[in-house]
Amino acid sequence: MTEDFYSEIKTSTGAFKWYCAGEWLESTSAKTVAVLNPSTRQKEFEVQEVDSAFAAAKEAQKAWAKTPLCERAEVLHRVAAVMREHAQPIADCLVKEIAKPRKDSLSEVIRSADLIDYTAEEGLRSLGQGELLNSDSFPGQTRNKLCLVSKVPLGVVLAIPPFNYPVNLAVSKLAPALMAGNAVVLKPPSQGAAAGVHMVQCFAAAGLPKGLVNMVTGKGSEIGDYLTQHAGVDCISFTGGDTGVSIARKAGMVPLQMELGGKDACIICSDADIGLAAKAVIKGGFSYSGQRCTAVKLVLVHKDVADDLVAKVAAGVAKLRVGAPEDDADITPVVSESSANFIEGLVEDARHKGAKFLTPYKREGNLIWPTLLDDVTPEMRIAWEEPFGPVLPIVRVDTVQQAIDHCNASKFGLQGCVFTQDINQAIAISDAMETGTVQINAAPARGPDHFPFQGFRESGIGSQGIRNSLAMMVKTKSTVINLNQPSYAMG
């Protein structure tokens, strides 16, 4: 029974335990962190706050690094199978913790299992390839040296996923790290920690050697610096916002893989298919209430087609259902009261500076109705800042170059999209946009999970996607064989 499967992850008081060296433990500090339901703003779960689990990870990693790739892959395939079998309770946590619609919550868990399976297979191919170099290819050298180039694990990876995809973006770090021979210390987001606990139980139940995955919970404001600057950290994989910039400044020589904020711009040219563009803007801007790094966060539309686009988008937004995640509403409460307050501040700044409201702004607690703003100007905060909520600004531009310039003036550069029926123009605009990924005639999207995914400027460091993450989780080692060259008698 799935209920019995997850029974050991809670304390007698109902708080979720932390996971270290293959055991579910109670915190010695006895501290807990309340996880509030965004819909009700009442406590839904409690998670424990702990010190560290790096010693267990470092010890377990030594043996794991010597484990054959095929055996690592077998373990990951078992994890994926267990996760599919016990997916629903993880999905239920997502509904209650982060107000993600029910169907999307289950989809995230299944997508995560698929990612684990793919990582195991890709790891067998990419990590199993080495290189042999001969010294005589360099001028002045003879064939007296052979260089064997191999990939070896980094050691212990600190994985920190965000609240909006606490399962998928956790396994996108865990699976490559483990397949590459590393151990992991996972710090789930406070809002999303219960789902993280359930997910880690799948790794434990699949027979992963003890100590390879350890999970600590607690407030990032209290334990974040301790974790990210711990001497046992050999790599940090982080997904989040401005906190990542602070981590990068303090991390020193530790390899970093970071996906930070985004202000994903949608450029709509005068020759675009406006019906297609409008549908993409609605889906891209308001899915999961805009709480996605790849959400459309700014529309830059050519003035010649702006009226047509605005009318179509406004009509579509009016049809979005607002309500509870349990009812699979299109717009559900944002994750916290502080997030709702920040979004409201951006909206009121735009109102004060003359933005046109195509939909009325309405808020009840953490629930914000979809808000569409027209005639947005560069003087407004919403033109530059990331709301991470169901608010979409529209800027009318005179030229495509004006749209490109606005995009490139942003401190962010995660994703963007271009709508035009001229493929030559599409490629030219993509080349000009200083953005990690540009989608042509579609809204921004992270997946499929094996595609490269990266940000420019303050949107990130390094590249993700399964193969890129596997490459990030190893370092190159050279073994040079020095040969004694015999002298051969001729004739």
From TrEMBL:
Keyword line: Oxidoreductase
Ranges where the Aldehyde dehydrogenase domain occurs: 24-478
Enzyme class: oxidoreductase
Positions of the catalytic residues: E259
Coiled coil regions in record: none
Keyword Oxidoreductase: yes
Enzyme Commission numbers on file: 1.2.1.9
InterPro entries, sorted: Ald_DH/histidinol_DH, Ald_DH_C, Ald_DH_CS_CYS, Ald_DH_CS_GLU, Ald_DH_N, Aldehyde_DH_dom, ALDH-related_metabolic_enz
Any one GO molecular-function label of the UniProt entry: lactaldehyde dehydrogenase (NAD+) activity
Reactions it catalyzes: D-glyceraldehyde 3-phosphate + NADP(+) + H2O = (2R)-3-phosphoglycerate + NADPH + 2 H(+)
CDD domains linked to this entry: ALDH_F11_NP-GAPDH (cd07082)
PANTHER family: ALDEHYDE DEHYDROGENASE
Family: Belongs to the aldehyde dehydrogenase family.
Protein name in UniProt: NADP-dependent glyceraldehyde-3-phosphate dehydrogenase
Lineage of producing organism: Eukaryota, Viridiplantae, Chlorophyta, core chlorophytes, Chlorophyceae
